[in-house]
Specification:
Blueprint (H helix, E strand, L loop, with lengths): L5 H18 L4 H14 L2 H14 L4 H13 L3 H14 L4 H7 L1 H11 L3 H14 L4 H14 L2 H14 L4 H21 L2 H22 L3 H17 L13 H32 L4 H17 L7 H17 L4 H10 L3 H14 L4 H13 L3 H14 L4 H12 L4 H17 L3 H14 L5 H13 L4 H13 L3 H17 L4 H21 L3 H12 L15 H13 L3 H13 L6 H19 L1 H9 L9 H12 L20 H17 L9 H14 L4 H13 L15 H14 L7 H13 L3 H18 L3 H13 L5 H18 L3 H16 L7 H11 L3 H14 L7 H13 L8 H6 L7 H11 L4 H12 L1
Length: about 950
């Protein structure tokens, strides 16, 4: 008889186990053994059912429970595994296997946390929370790790979830306050001060509840103090309810309420620091934090307090921290920053440098001291040292900006602006932001979006500074928002009145603000209010260098005279202009020549050319003429029919007169000769034509002279002769004449110009392909101007069909096809555009801006993502860094969001791709900074935030 096979043995064993289970169905042992049998046989489903039966009968059966959980875990049935463990734990308090299983992931996360493996710890905690959402410990620890990794929003969510489960858990409250504080600092760095203030208020409440739960715990009181101090520093002044035309009382009440809120928060921080210091007087850091808080309170109360003892408290607290840690370099820097004694400040900073020569903060504060004491060379050296050690420190950038701002070279002013902008980007303090606005006003950068944002933030952070409102008014004025500018200047005047200074100190800022207000009132069409503002300055009973004019300076006199002229008070306007003329000898040359030009213009508008000519005869020597005055004189000469005076500029050396100015002057002279012709019915163009032909030999490349010559030829009726305005009898002359034809609407259906161009090409033996292509390009431009895109496209196609077509022609053809595809929703033009743009890209020796961007849009519309990515990267490198437009940053945002290369594991590849240099959100924010008026960017940001 043969031996039984393994299969037969297994079947017999299963039958025995089933028989045992049937004999005693309330015993879990046979079911456990049967589960082992099925597990060895590979039948997981039967094994799980047997284990489940065994655990149901005996919840304390660790062997069956562990085996069941292992099977469920392998099959990915975590929810069922959790249900089994919960059921067993609920039936028996001795089901240790179930309790161990329920806390396994938490223990694993804690182990990862202790080992510094934060990502693995977060995953373990997250898994435990998924299995059981009531895991308070996992929520708190996960929130702490999120806070450590800088994911503040996620950390706040975890702590809030923990508090919903355990409303009296002091660890959750402490973590929530810490996360909200860190999140608020990030908001302050990005300029979201209102959001930061709301977060800090919630953080302060959480810390207060935590202190009531824990009692005398020093770290909790210090956390509460930190939140209050941060709130005192960032709480914004909201001027949304204050409209133009408000009274002084409303403004002062609003600013005082803001100051009271900030001061209350600072005092609350001081009390909490004192409580923490009382509990742990050996903590040196608390002494230093208290010193910083007291210094802030002294700064806020400096206009109200004359008690010098208050100024000593920050120094005493700093010394207390140094007594505990005398070799702490940062404590010495703090003492140097809060002390009001120059000798002590310098000694503290030098002591800090003795401890660490590479301490950038000490060098920066030392440079500030040297600059205040007048040692500019030492200050520059200290700022340079600090900036080279730590380029991310704001103070040395601001210090170097202040040094460069005092120089008058154009390069120094630009460098000052860039340095101050860098300081504002690192640390958005209102003092730095006001300085940026002041430098921008001098360098012509007031239209910059960075300046706009910085100045608006300065108004929120420092409404008691008149400078912030004044610069805000300048920014609004340069953007032609005169109503906002008027409101800002009025607020600046109110803020000046709130400052506790003498009238002598307030005199010059008051004059500047009042003149800015008068200028904006005049630009807004409120000449009466502008004149009234100037009259208030005129009646000020203060000593002035101007005779009998109060506080009105040169600019004020011009605004006053202009306003009077607009109001029809001509005699008073002339009287003010005479007062201005009397003070010309005391003015600088630049101001004097500008004032002379204003007087000439005003005299001409009020009394005519005779009076203006009389003023011109009394002008000083020729070298003092500026550009505007030369143009005014030439214009008056052109309008003077009897030629009572002649222009002296023609005899001036070239070094004293710019090319652009002289071209404008000669154009006015030609106009004067045309006006002075014998015919009364029309312009006498012959005199002007004769003169301009002579001038054309002196300035052969001047477009203004050529355009004027062409206009006079056209006004004479002989339109075919207008090619003389160009390079006569040349190919380019006929091409430019084709452009003049469309602008002047002169016989557009004639082909005479094209015939003459072909004859000129044959006569000179020129390259016909080049000139015919340019001629077709001119035809296309004429059709584009008339919005006849179909004819324009045909002309561009002919231009591109020429042999060796120019890259510019190909580029325009591609752009025109893209426009036609957009207007007529015709996708066939996209293919034509892509072909032309690709040829233009290949023909260009260097990457040309916009070409690759349009090609990327075309390829993207055709569904080629790889080509879209490639061309966008080419577009990025085709622009100089300082000239890259906002749209390019927005496209890089799209590329960073959608490109497959962003998530590629190859680190080497990522360094070669420009879109990986920043996150999609950072690209989008840069685009908004470049062009904050584009609604498309804001919509994309809103979608990004919601996602």
């Amino acid at each position: 008889m043969s031996a039984p096979t393994a299969k037969q043995v297994a079947e017999e064993e299963a039958e025995r186990l089933l028989a045992a289970a049937k004999l005693n169905p309330n015993d879990g042992g046979p079911f456990r053994s049967l589960g082992h049998h099925y597990a060895r046989a590979g039948d997981a489903q039967r094994a799980a059912r047997c284990y489940q039966r065994a655990v149901t009968l005996d919840p304390d059966d660790a062997e069956a429970g562990e085996a069941l959980c292992d099977l469920l875990d392998v099959e990915g049935k975590e929810s069922l595994e959790l249900a089994v463990c919960k059921e067993a734990a609920g039936k028996s308090p001795r089901a240790f296997w179930a309790f161990r299983r329920l806390g396994y992931l938490q223990a694993l996360g804690l182990a990862y946390h202790r080992l510094g493996m934060f990502t693995a710890a977060v995953k373990s905690y997250g898994r435990a929370i998924e299995l059981d959402s009531s895991r308070v410990f996992a929520l708190i620890e996960s929130g702490n790790i999120q806070l450590m990794l800088g994911y503040f929003r996620k950390g706040v969510e975890q702590f809030r979830s923990a508090l919903e489960l355990a409303p009296h858990n002091h660890s959750a409250y402490f973590g929530l306050a810490s996360a909200l504080l860190a999140w608020s600092r990030h908001c302050v760095a990005t300029g979201a001060f209102t959001w930061a203030a709301n977060l800090l208020k919630e953080a302060s409440e959480a810390a207060k509840v935590c202190s009531s739960l824990t009692g005398n715990l020093s770290c909790v009181w210090k956390l509460h103090a930190d939140t209050q101090l941060a709130l005192a520093r960032c709480f914004p002044w909201e001027d949304g309810d204050i409209k133009w035309g408000m009274d002084e009382h409303t403004f002062k009440a609003s600013v005082l309420e803001w100051r009271s809120t900030c001061l209350s928060a600072a005092n609350g921080a001081k009390l909490s620091y004192q409580r923490a210091l009382h509990l742990t007087p050996w903590e040196a850091n608390i002494h230093i934090d208290t010193a910083v808080c007291l210094d802030l309170i002294c700064t806020m109360e400096k206009n109200n307090s004359v008690d010098l003892i208050i100024w000593e408290l920050p120094e005493k607290m700093s010394l207390g921290g140094l007594m505990l840690e005398p070799v702490n370099k940062d404590f010495w820097v703090t003492l140097g920053s809060v002390s009001s004694n120059q000798s002590l400040k310098q000694h503290s900073l030098i002591r800090a440098l003795h401890l660490d020569m590479s301490l950038s903060e000490a060098w920066a504060y030392l440079g500030k001291i040297y600059r205040q004491s007048g040692h500019k060379q030492l200050a520059r050296q200290a700022f340079d040292r600090a900036r080279s050690i730590d380029p991310s420190l704001a103070l040395p950038w601001a210090g170097m900006s202040a040094e460069d701002h005092n120089q008058y070279e154009a390069g120094a002013v630009n460098e000052s602006y860039e340095s101050c902008l860098r300081a504002v980007q690192i640390l958005p303090l209102p003092e730095f932001q006001i300085g940026l606005g002041t430098i921008a006003a001098r360098s012509g950068e007031l239209l910059s979006p960075q300046v706009l944002m910085a100045v608006r933030q300065a108004v929120q952070r420092a409404p008691h500074y008149p400078e912030s409102h004044n610069i805000n008014g300048l920014v609004a004025e340069v953007r032609s928002d005169f109503q906002s500018a008027i409101a800002s200047y009025q607020q600046a005047k109110f803020a000046l009145d709130m400052m506790h200074r003498s009238k002598l100190d307030n005199r010059y800022p008051f004059v500047d603000v009042s003149l800015n207000l008068a200028r904006s009132l005049f630009k807004a069409g409120l000449a009466t209010d502008a004149a009234r503002e100037c009259e208030e300055l005129k009646t000020k009973d203060l000593t002035s260098h101007l005779k009998f004019l109060g506080l009105l300076n040169v600019d004020g006199l011009q605004i006053y005279a202009f306003a009077l002229w607009k109001l029809g008070r001509h005699d008073e306007a002339l009287s003010v202009s005479r007062n201005l003329a009397e003070n010309l000898p005391s003015m600088k040359q630049e101001s004097a020549t500008g004032a002379l030009g204003f007087i000439c213009t005003l005299a001409y508008n009020i009394t005519g050319t005779d009076s203006a000519a009389l003023v011109i005869h009394t002008l000083p020597g020729q070298p003092s003429y500026n550009r505007e005055l030369k143009f005014i004189i030439s214009a008056l000469d052109a309008l003077q029919p009897n030629k009572r005076f002649q222009l002296p500029q023609l005899s001036m050396p070239p070094r004293l007169t710019s090319y652009e100015v002289m071209s404008e002057v000669h154009s006015n002279i030609a106009l004067g000769k045309a006006i002075g012709g014998e015919s009364n019915s029309c312009l006498g163009v012959e005199g002007g034509l004769s003169y301009l032909k002579k001038v054309l030999h002196m300035y052969p490349d001047c477009s203004l002279v050529r355009n004027h010559l062409g206009s006079l030829l056209l006004s004479g009726g002989d339109w075919t002769a207008s090619h003389k305005a160009n390079r006569t009898n040349t190919e380019i002359g006929w091409v430019m004449l084709k452009q003049l034809e469309s602008r002047c609407s002169l016989n557009p259906g004639s082909d005479e110009i094209e015939i003459n161009l072909k004859e000129c090409i044959e006569r000179k033996g020129s390259n016909p392909s080049k000139w015919v292509s340019l001629f077709n390009l001119a035809c296309a431009q004429s059709s584009m101007r008339a919005e006849d895109f179909a004819i324009a496209e045909k002309a561009l196609a002919q231009a591109c069909a020429e042999k060796d077509a120019d890259s510019c022609v190909l580029f325009l053809n591609g752009a025109m096809n893209m426009e036609m595809a957009r207007r007529y929703a015709a996708p066939q033009f996209i293919t034509l555009a892509a072909s032309s743009l690709r040829k233009a890209q290949q023909k260009s020796q260097a990457t040309v801006p916009v070409v690759s961007l349009l090609l990327a849009q075309a390829d993207g519309s055709l569904g080629s993502k790889a080509k879209w990515e490639k061309n966008l990267r080419l577009e990025w490198f085709s622009w100089p860094p300082e000239l890259r437009p906002a749209e390019l940053y927005f496209q890089m945002h799209l590329l960073a969001s959608q490109s497959t290369a962003v998530g590629a594991p190859q680190q080497k590849q990522q360094f070669l791709l420009p879109e990986t240099m920043q996150s999609p959100g950072a690209w989008l924010l840069r685009a908004i900074h470049q062009n904050p008026s584009c609604s498309r960017y804001w919509k994309a940001l809103q979608q990004l935030v919601y996602v």
